[in-house]
């Protein structure tokens, strides 16, 4: 299976959410800051559980935070 | 270039594996060319290798990685699994190569008569395979951390 990049709006949503830091988001969802960094750079695809947790922090539906590119 | 605590830890592991195994293989080859295992000398060398590994670990961790490690998250586990998989593949390839070498040498006699794979030599090849697979594992993990 080819590696597909999953786009996301985490960076924009963090800034919209009172300049939330990567460390604060990481602590909120229970991962390391490096994982948030990798997610924002689209170099890591999160598990469903992590994706839902992040969406819940921003109080947004999953598809607003993560986008699966169409061919 | 910024390295996280976990990357530093893996880098130190990699460095220690490479240094200690390099020292061990060089010194043991100097002893008898891996043709035989000379008890007392080999025992002394193994003790020396263990002491060097412990001292190097203490020094390197004290200098480069004093911060406490964060708990592993899903990305750490994924990278760790990839490292283990690559380490395992390399171990399988190296062990199969050794079996093939012994088969060709002993069974079919296809390799020159000058090369005799004795018990101690086979033991060192297996040890080498284990060391190389440990190095491959750490290198793979480091590479995946760097790529992301």
Low-confidence stretches of chain A: none
Please give the number of β-strands of chain A: 2
Taken together, the total number of domains of chain A comes to: 1
Helix- and strand-based class of chain A?
mainly alpha
Strand order within the widest beta sheet of chain A = 1-2
Biggest sheet overview of chain A? 2 strands, antiparallel
Descriptive notes:
- The complex is a heterodimer of chains A (71) and B (148).
- Chain A has 71 residues and is mostly helical.
- Chain A has a single domain (10-61), classed as lambda repressor-like DNA-binding domains (434 Repressor (Amino-terminal Domain), Orthogonal Bundle), CATH 1.10.260.
- In chain A, 54% of the residues lie in helices and 6% in strands.
- Chain A has a two-stranded antiparallel ribbon.
- Chain A is globular.
- Chain A starts with 6 loop residues before the first strand and ends with a strand.
- The model of chain A has no long low-confidence stretch (mean pLDDT 90).
- Chain B is mainly alpha-helical and 148 residues long.
- Chain B has one domain.
- Helix content of chain B is 80%, strand content 0%.
- Chain B has 4 helices and no strands.
- Chain B is flat and about 55 Å long.
- Chain B starts with a helix and ends with a helix.
- At the A-B interface, helix 3 of A face helix 3 of B.
Q: In brief, what are we looking at here?
A:
The complex is a heterodimer of chains A (71) and B (148). By secondary structure, chain A is mainly α.
For the structure shown, list the relevant keywords.
heterodimer; A: 71 residues; mainly alpha; 434 Repressor (Amino-terminal Domain); two-stranded antiparallel sheet; 5 helices; 54% helix; B: 148 residues; 80% helix; 0% strand; flat
